[in-house]
């Protein structure tokens, strides 16, 4: 979610004149925010290219120091994604079910990094190829008997 932020851009329109970061924005101004760029900002994520999921551990100093809006893949505020909890639960369930049966390896047919396509949502132009290797099934005690 940090490297491949699904919604690279989110937008707002000012409903009244407002001052933001030293700029005066008249009513009706479009504002574009870039969660994908935020998530790679070294000020919030030192060594931003490193895959270190433990950065998000609530006990981790980096996590505690980070601004709450430094990572906003589901947007922020009253118009944030209503499906956030559902989506996270769905991803976890899907991964648990898949990883119980398979391990995934990078496909030899994927010899270059995946090509990204930026739109309202981020996608992979030619998909991501993986090899699914079926795990060896453990024999249950009843099978042994
Ligand atoms: C990984 C999955 C998902 C991601 C990364 C995601 C991300 C987002 C983002 C960035 C926004 C805009 C938030 C903003 O402007 O501040 C949004 C809005 C929204 N999302 Fe999601 N979303 C996901 C899954 C879902 C699912 C599963 C549902 C429905 C079951 C859903 C329903 C919505 C709706 C209805 C809005 C519009 C909310 C509003 O304008 O008040 N999303 N989502």
TrEMBL record:
GO terms for molecular function: heme binding; iron ion binding; monooxygenase activity; oxidoreductase activity, acting on paired donors, with incorporation or reduction of molecular oxygen. Heme binds at residue 81. SUPFAM superfamilies: Cytochrome P450. It comes from the Eukaryota. Keywords: Heme, Iron, Metal-binding, Monooxygenase, Oxidoreductase. Its cofactor is heme. The keyword Iron applies. Pfam families: p450. Belongs to the cytochrome P450 family. This is Uncharacterized protein. The gene is gb27722.
